[in-house]
Amino acid sequence: MFGWLTKLKGASAASSAPNPPPRAPQSAAQAAEAKRQEGNALLERDDLDGAALRYREAIALDDAAVPARVNLAYVLLELQRPEEAEVHLTRAIALDASNVDAHYMLGNTMRARGAAADAATHFALAIASQPDFALAYRDGCLAYVESAQFDRAEALLVSGLKRFPGSADLLFLMGNVHTKAGRREAAVDSYRRALAARGGYVEAHENLAVVLSELGQPEQAAAQLQAVAVLRPRDVDAQCRYGVALQGLGRLDAAVESFRRAVAIDPASATALASLGSAYAAQGRRADAIEQYHAAIAADATHYFAYAGLGVELNEAGRPEEATQRLREALALNPAAVEPHSNILFLMSFVAEPFDYLAEARRYGEKVTARASQHVARQGRARVADVPPRIRIGLVSGDLRNHPVAAFLEGVLASLDRSRVEVFAYATAQRDDAVTERLRRLCDGWRSLVGMNDEAAAERVRDDGIHVLIDLAGHTAHNRLSIFALEPASVQVTWLGYLASSGLAAIDYVLADRVSLPEEHRSHFVEQAWYMPNSLYCFTAPPDAPPVGALPGLSRGDVTFGSFQRMNKVSDSTLQAWSRVMARMPGARLRLQCKQMADSSGREHALERLRRFGVDTDRVELVGPVPDRTAYLACHDHVDIVLDTFPYPGITTTCEALWMGVPTVTLAGGTLLSRQGASLLHCLELDDWVARDVEDYVDCAVRQAGDLPALARLRGELRERARRSPLFDTARFARDFEDAMHAMVARAVQVDPSNSR
Fold this sequence. Notes:
The protein is an alpha/beta fold. The protein is 56% helix and 7% strand. Among the domains are: 1-165, Alpha Horseshoe (Serine Threonine Protein Phosphatase 5, Tetratricopeptide repeat); 371-531, Rossmann fold; 552-728, Rossmann fold (3-Layer(aba) Sandwich), CATH 3.40.50.2000. It contains 33 helices and 13 strands. Helix 6 (116-129) packs antiparallel against helix 7 and helix 18 (320-333) packs antiparallel against helix 19 (339-351). The protein is elongated and about 125 Å long.
């Protein structure tokens, strides 16, 4: 236990003390010392009980035999009898207040039972008696930290490092103290010096990885975790942590290999199996991901992460009911977990009644807010005293890449007046591509939040002086809503990536328009509605779009309906409506194109659902993904009319179809999400393509499909109509957006009581 203790030497700290305590007559002291030496010989042979007996005999001969008491305490600690050891150490110190060994051992004994403050006192006394006792500096620092005496811990380390500037342990602990104090750059320096002093210092690599992540340096953090994985090749957790870092960097093949190593080390590790499932899911290997999640649950039926991951993949596979069940199981296993709760809300946003959804969203918001409450109480909300000439906007998203969010963002960013606003992007995922690089060039600042905890990320936002922080994810993947609960900006908004309430009271506004969010629906939100003059969206016209093709129905003699939506958006009620449309138009065909059609299981699942609702699958064409966006847009040449899904309509797909000359039949529902099709079509004055209910939807599809010449005329003019509309006019939307940002900050200044004079 205490390898530093010189058990077998005849001398001790007591014998060299400047003022030794009164001793028994020489013959008793000599006899006691002889018994101690016998005890040391037995201790050398690992006969702990025999050694303890001899030390007790020594104490019986000479109550002031401090070395015997110290050695007895050592043996008692080895025998797991700390209370008795503490009695002898306390007596030894009473006899010799400067005994280094007794103070050090008593300090460690007190630390072990949770009395860290008392322990720190004894470590300090040990150092006072022996200033070059390196271990006492180390353990004294730990005791100060454990008793929340951080200033004293730092002072002790400063003193210790003056004596031992190359001590890896002291440098490591100084790194921990710097981290605790929020001095991350200084912590990095200390950890690197610790590693220079002791190669292969695993704990220093691990802690350095954490701090580098918090500094927004995920590549460097991954390098530290790689070092740990190399140093501990048989450690499942080390392989998994490195895999997680690689996955966060988008290096998915390498992540898979790391997780496979972990599974090879322990095939029954639920963590390794579930992590491998997560990496497969990120690669789009859904069947493999589901298999791994099932294996993880079989290995450990309480592994909530496996249930949560399985729920996400089942939803992607078009099995929302099973997905919800698995996510609720995950939440039952870990009620404090945020991610599965967020995923449940994502699924509920498709189908739940608005106030059922809102109740669940409020529960989520209360959970996240409670976690942030101490930080908010300490920091307060970020405030701005006056409206600055340039509003600094922060955009938080994991979709700053080839993704629908970027399709609505890029044109707006390019059109903003930089004398009125500046834009900082906060990327929550690292899957960079050509779109990422274009967006990066359109931003005034770019920060990675990958691997950063919420507090560090919120601190970054505060340090950047953001006035309006905008969530672009809601309850979709890679969201960081927990950062908003920490209130790092004066105004906080949700927009674009999610179309239901976040549930967070700390988010002030949801951007909307009056078609998608009528006044009577404002109560569906925790956030206040901030209405844009035309549309809450503005789509970036695809620069790689081919010309609009001729109406295929003219050559076929009948209409081809199409859908480009993921199958998890195709509800049973949608399929039932499609079945009715197809029954009323016996010559029509239906073309379904999405990534779920890439494998046989996805195609068979889609066909089974279509058959269940009476659709003649001989009239259905299933098409998987195509190589690039230009090829995808060209696929619209095979479609006359898009049939929208409900209650989750197309948004990006609708805008792309409009640009390619293909109108959409949509159904306006009773939520912000379900009214997006209506809002988009309203921008192009296509309100006669918007249905009020399912019956009207079926009638509308049949009516519009029945006039092929009119469809051909509309197809020929639709791109130009789109170009002139608010939906594609990025300059107009940019002015409206700038006005909204300035007005929000002005309102925040006006209502902030700290600004009253």
